[in-house]
C-alpha cells in the first residue's frame, strides 16, 4: 500500500486543530498527521483570557509562526489567525459591498472611531449618511465635534470603503449604502416634479430638505431662494418646517430643488 504524502503547512498559513491540553504557560494543539502545535510565550499570555473558556477536544484556528521549535512543536499564534481571518472577512465584505455593523467608540473633528472585529476603524465625516451629517452653520469645527460626539455608543450599519492591512487602516462609509438605496428611490422622480418635504438642515449655501414621501434628501441652493428670504436663512427657516419645492436637477445621486413656497411654523 502506497504511503500517503502529507504536505507540511507553510509559515503564515491558517490551520485548524483540536485542543490537547492547556497548562499554566502553554496551549498544546493536535494538528493530526502534521504534528503537535504549541501556543506559548508572549503570544499565550496575550490571549490567555480568550482561551479560558475552551476545553480539551475543542477545535481552534491558529496561524503558523514557526514550523519547528527546539522541542519539535509547530509554533502557533491564535491572535495572528484571528487577525488574518478578520481581514479576509473584511476584504470579502468590501468586494461584495456587504453591510458591516459597528459601534461608535469615539469621535474627533474628522469623523467617528469604531471597532470592526476588534480592529480600529474610522468613519470620516464626508462618509456619513445625509441624515447623520453634522449640518453646522459656518462649519465651526468645535460645533461639528459636539454633534459627532452624540454618536458615541450608537450602532451604525456601514460598508468598507478602503482597506490597508499593512498599515492597519480600515476606512468605513455609511454613505455608500445610502447612495445605493437612494439611486433606487430616485428612479421614481424626475425633473420639474413637485414634492413636499421637511427642513433637516440650514447652511449658508442652502437648505436641506427631506422628502416626506421617501427617505431622500435634496438641497435647495441659496440661488433658488427669494432674495427677501435668503438674507437671513436661520430666521426665515426653521428645522422641522414644511416646504414645497420643485426638482430642478438629479445628478450623481444628488437632488437639487427650487423653492416654491414656505411655511415657517412657529
What do these coordinates show?
This protein folds into 3 domains: 69 residues, Beta Barrel (OB fold (Dihydrolipoamide Acetyltransferase, E2P)); 84 residues, Nucleic acid-binding proteins (OB fold (Dihydrolipoamide Acetyltransferase, E2P), Beta Barrel), CATH 2.40.50.140; 76 residues, OB fold (Dihydrolipoamide Acetyltransferase, E2P). The longest helix has 19 residues. The C terminus is likely disordered. 20% of the residues lie in helices and 41% in strands. A hairpin with a 3-residue loop joins strand 1 and strand 2. The protein starts with 13 loop residues before the first strand and ends with a strand. The protein is α+β, with helices and mostly antiparallel strands.
Relevant terms:
266 residues; 5-stranded antiparallel sheet; OB fold (Dihydrolipoamide Acetyltransferase, E2P); 5-stranded mixed barrel; alpha+beta; 20% helix; 3 domains; 6 helices; elongated
Care to give the gist of this entry?
The chain is an alpha+beta fold.
Question: What's the level 1 CATH class of the largest domain?
Answer: Mainly Beta
Write down the secondary-structure element order.
EEEHEEHEEEHEEHEEEHHEE
End-to-end gap: 91 Å
Please give the share of residues in helix: 10-25%
The CATH topology of the largest domain: OB fold (Dihydrolipoamide Acetyltransferase, E2P)
The fraction of residues assigned to DSSP E strands is 35-45%
Rough outline: elongated
Task: Give the name of the CATH architecture of the largest domain.
Answer: Beta Barrel
Radius of gyration: 27 Å
How many helices? The count is 6
**Looking at this structure, what is the CATH superfamily of the largest domain?**
Nucleic acid-binding proteins
Amino acid at each position: 500500500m502506497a504511503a500517503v504524502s502529507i504536505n507540511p503547512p507553510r509559515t503564515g498559513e491558517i490551520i485548524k486543530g483540536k485542543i490537547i491540553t492547556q497548562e499554566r504557560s502553554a496551549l498544546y494543539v493536535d494538528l493530526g498527521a502534521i504534528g503537535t502545535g504549541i501556543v506559548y510565550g508572549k503570544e499565550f499570555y496575550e490571549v490567555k483570557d480568550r482561551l479560558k473558556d475552551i476545553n480539551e477536544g475543542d477545535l481552534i484556528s491558529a496561524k503558523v509562526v514557526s514550523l519547528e521549535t527546539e522541542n519539535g512543536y509547530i509554533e502557533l499564534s491564535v491572535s495572528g489567525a484571528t487577525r488574518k481571518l478578520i481581514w479576509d472577512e473584511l476584504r470579502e465584505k468590501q468586494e461584495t459591498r456587504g453591510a458591516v455593523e459597528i459601534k461608535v467608540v469615539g469621535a474627533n473633528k474628522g469623523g467617528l472611531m469604531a471597532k470592526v472585529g476588534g480592529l480600529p476603524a474610522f468613519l470620516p465625516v464626508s462618509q456619513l449618511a445625509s441624515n447623520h451629517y453634522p449640518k453646522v452653520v459656518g462649519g465651526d469645527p468645535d460645533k461639528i465635534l459636539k454633534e459627532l460626539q452624540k454618536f458615541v455608543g450608537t450602532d451604525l450599519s456601514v460598508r468598507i470603503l478602503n482597506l490597508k492591512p499593512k498599515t492597519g487602516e480600515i476606512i468605513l462609509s455609511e454613505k455608500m449604502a445610502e447612495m445605493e438605496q437612494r439611486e433606487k428611490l430616485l428612479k421614481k422622480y424626475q425633473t420639474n416634479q413637485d414634492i413636499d418635504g421637511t427642513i433637516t438642515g440650514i447652511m449658508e449655501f442652502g437648505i436641506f430638505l427631506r422628502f416626506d414621501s421617501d427617505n431622500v434628501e435634496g438641497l435647495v441652493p441659496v440661488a433658488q431662494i427669494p432674495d427677501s428670504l435668503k438674507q437671513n436663512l436661520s430666521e426665515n427657516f426653521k428645522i422641522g418646517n414644511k416646504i414645497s419645492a420643485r426638482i430642478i436637477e438629479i445628478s450623481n445621486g444628488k437632488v437639487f430643488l427650487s423653492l416654491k413656497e414656505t411655511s415657517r411654523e412657529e
